């Protein structure tokens, strides 16, 4: 296609993705109440543990902060709900320029990355109450603890996003291996660094007293790294075998 045709195709794909996002945001706006209830569970638990002598509440400091919070949540949830549409539109725009092998690798990357990202978000949601309760322990006895709604949501959202991306990083290592940037042996050589990073991250994401959660989270991240290194070494072995057969004229 000519450049003009590419631009027309891009505009078409972007319009479809934008419409899907807006529709998903409208639906997500009505889901904000249960989501707010879910992520504020730690605040209610802290309030129960501290008793009536200390106020522990979610705070909306401006007239429009309640609406602003729901709008931001609707955007985030809408992006997730409309993901199948905008991912497909991006895929449909890129497919004509990809080879069969690149298409196969891309499909494998997406199918692996999406569930890992959501698994990471679920893990972040699992450890989030522990972090909130740990930070609440530093509030002096008898003092009020008011959690500003927008700041609290940003904290939860960034935590889920960070853990979700951390779970997807092994997939990027495999992608770099397939692209020939790094070998499986080079990835495996970094196992010490991977273990240290996993343990430090898990220790920061879980309270010191919850040793089990720390080891579980660190173990999951280390296991994902080992799987990525193993797959990369397998791909290297298959690539080397194909090159040897091609050099000797042996049928593949």
Query: What's the count of strands?
Result: 2
Q: Can you write the helix and strand succession as a string?
A: HHHEHHHEHHHH
- What proportion of the residues is helical, as a percent range? over 70%
Strand order of the largest sheet: 1-2
Our measurement of the CA-to-CA distance between the termini, rounded to an integer number of angstroms, reads 35 Å
The total of helices stands at: 10
Low-pLDDT residue intervals, each spanning 5 or more residues:
none
Shape category: flat
Number of domains: 1
Beta-sheet strand percentage?
A: under 5%
Q: Please give the largest β-sheet.
A: 2 strands, parallel
What is the overall pLDDT average? Answer: 82
Structural class from helices and strands?
A: mainly alpha
Radius of gyration: 23 Å
């Amino acid at each position: 296609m000519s450049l003009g045709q590419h631009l027309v195709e891009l505009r078409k794909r972007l319009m479809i993705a934008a419409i899907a996002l807006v529709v998903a945001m409208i639906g997500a706006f009505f889901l904000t109440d249960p989501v707010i209830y879910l992520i504020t569970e730690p605040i209610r638990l802290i309030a129960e543990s501290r008793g009536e002598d200390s106020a522990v509440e979610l705070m909306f400091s401006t007239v429009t902060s309640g609406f602003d919070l729901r709008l931001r949540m609707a955007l985030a949830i809408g992006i997730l709900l409309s993901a199948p549409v905008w991912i497909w539109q991006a895929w449909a725009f890129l497919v004509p320029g990809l080879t069969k092998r690149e298409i196969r690798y891309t499909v494998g990357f997406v199918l692996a990355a999406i569930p890992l990202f959501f698994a990471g978000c679920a893990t972040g949601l699992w450890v989030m109450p522990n972090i909130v309760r740990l930070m609440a322990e530093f509030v002096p006895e008898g003092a009020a603890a008011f959690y500003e709604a927008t700041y609290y949501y940003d904290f939860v959202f960034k935590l889920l996003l960070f853990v979700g991306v951390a779970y997807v990083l092994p997939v990027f290592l495999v992608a770099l291996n397939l692209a020939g940037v790094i070998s499986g042996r080079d990835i495996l050589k970094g196992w010490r660094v991977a273990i240290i990073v996993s343990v430090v991250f898990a220790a920061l994401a879980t309270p010191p007293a919850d040793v089990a959660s720390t080891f579980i989270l660190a173990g999951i991240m280390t296991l994902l790294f080992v799987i990525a290194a193993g797959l990369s070494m397998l791909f290297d072995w298959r690539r080397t075998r194909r090159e040897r057969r091609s050099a000797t004229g042996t049928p593949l």
